[in-house]
What does this fold into?
Amino acid sequence: MPRRKSPRKIVAPPVFKGYKPFGSSKVCDGEVELLYEEYEAIKLADYDLMPHHEACHLMGISRATFARIYESARRKIASAFVEAKTIKTVYGNVYFDENWFRCNDCENAFTIPNPRIKRICPVCRSQSIQLMNSTGSTNNK
Amino acid sequence: MSFKITVASGKGGTGKTTVATNLYWSLVKNFDNDTLLVDCDVEEPDDLLFFKNAILRSEVKVTQAVPEINTSKCTYCRKCVEYCEYNAITVIPPVQYASIAPDLCHSCGACLYACQDDALIEKDHEIGLMSGYDVGFGKGLLEGRLKIGSAAQTPVIRRVKKEALDAASVILFDAPPGTSCSVVTSVLDADFVIMVTEPTPFGLHDLKIAVELIREMDLPFGVVINKAGLGDRAVYDYLEDEGIDILEEIPFNEEYARKFSEGMILSRIDKNYAIHYQKIIRKILEFKQQ
Amino acid sequence: MKTIITANGSDVNATLDPRFGRCEFFCILDEETGETEFIENKAKLQSSAAGTTAAETVIEQGVKKVISGDFGPKAKSLLDRFGIQMVILKDEGQIIANVINSITGK
It folds into this structure.
């Protein structure tokens, strides 16, 4: 059997179900299916401006796999743009790695599995921590 | 008792399905109408593509029993964990936690035997589909198809083989490529194994591994060299050194390859091509009579 | 409070093992007294479900925090379920003694 695809780790699903072109002169036909991992790759590389070698680490995959996913994502989006197709986001091969926090000072990541645990960095005790799931800042400062 | 022939290969893409479907046609037309073709390549069953007029005859869900732990009865003795060869069971006594991971479970039943507290219940998980087809000639085609996401090839193959048991006087199995568990399950109890190879370094490399497997299993076999004329002579040298029978050489022909890719059975369209398969059958019959 | 740090060797001069399920040793640290104890990870050579088995050990040891280089999905869901905090250190080559110093605030 072929080796099973290792699931790609993503911290949060996209907040939309898809995008539709408007004002197109031709009738919008067809759609592209953008996988969650592809969305995540675009987000990490082009929105968070993270270098690929760090982004692949975050998604728990090799750099080559990351590059492949990223390339596929860009091609899908390009084809949707040029051919005025609908973009639909679909689940793909992912698991959600939610509730990870990152310390803004020492940059280590950690979970807060229990509300009784103090909301500080367990390594450097900084209070400047940020939930990695959201795109917006939930800075505690 | 039916006579069971399995078509196998080490390398993928050497022509197992070509040989299996053409052999089925030749067997039905020239030797025994009571022949059944069985597609054991449950990850990618493609024999059906070659029978344009196939009519679905039967469809059966293949299930696998995966146990679940009833935590109200469980005493957290961890006996099932010790018995489980596949690390599918997690039991943590201090926190009274017990669960079974269905993706790791092989349904061996050892945990059911181990449990003294009657805390395990088996539940059926669907792992695949078994379909029977009438193809217009012979006994038709039986195929197993693994459910997407499932990795339980061998239980599906076993189920299909059980269904095929004594269903016709000649049963032709199309095995998956490689030399893994699913291949072992497919060739197990065959009366004759046809190994399909191609005269290339890759074909030779994988053929050697496959030959080792079939010898280990002590099954009679012969080799069909498909796409003859391509590649080099290394496969021939190897077969001569090892004293392995070449059942037949099927020459490479681009026109045939094109027709095959359009889903045509070649011996149906070309008499010259059909002769190769009749030769293979004759050699196997000679073996059978010995 | 007890904390587990995944280690490459059985003393504080060993480095942090970046793998959780297949790490060599678990360093059990008592954050109050600073005492350490090293136990071998029995899951490290397991063919499958090493993360689950390692998480089992962590839960049985009654620790509240685990420090490693990364956690797989099964180990994470199990540790989450039992309220154990996971910490992923960015710098994977650190010596255990330094990790201990930074978390105990010395």
